[in-house]
Amino acid sequence: MIPSSLTVHPAPVPQSGEEDEQILPLPGCPRLLAGIRRHARVTLADWALPQEVADDTLLVVSELISNAVLHALPPAFLRLVRRRTETGGTLGIEVTDGGPVARQPTDHSTAPDEHGRGLTIVRALSTDHGTRGGPDGSATWWAELSTP
Question: Counting CB atoms within 10 angstroms of each CB, which of 2, 72, 113, 129 has the fewest?
């Protein structure tokens, strides 16, 4: 479950330069997320991002889409945005879902170290991150990474 302690503020808006965007609907089943990750990998390769940036991006994508499918209401989608400026660029990752599901009793059959690291990973790899709520109860979890 994504904790409510995450900093809440809107995603940055690009000031100038070029922008590329890819939007992918997320399946409602966790085992189908591998296809979304593969599609994101192809998109990042098409954008000719350095391998280190692509690897970090895919890890952040994986954490955010998994949380949306496991802990939120559908529909959900992934949005990747590459913004290029004269001084470098950014890669935006947004996952919007239908809002949180009602809390379920904790499943103690899973070892505690197998879950709960997602936001730590997002925080470590991104230059900025946060969440914003929509008027319809939806939630958007976003992260931004620097690109050369």
Answer: 113
**140: helix, strand or coil:** strand
The residue among 47, 1, 5, 11 whose CA lies nearest residue 128 is 11
pTM over 0.90: no
Residue 63 lies in a domain: yes
Does 140 map to a domain? Answer: no
- The rounded average pLDDT for each run of 10 residues, N- to C-terminus, in the chain (148 residues) is 40 60 92 93 94 96 93 94 89 95 61 63 94 94 94
User: Do the domain assignments include residue 4?
Assistant: no
Whole-Å CA distances, 122 to 94, 109, 145: 12, 26, 10
Spatial contact of 37 and 63, defined as CB atoms under 8 Å apart: no
How many structural domains is the chain composed of? 1
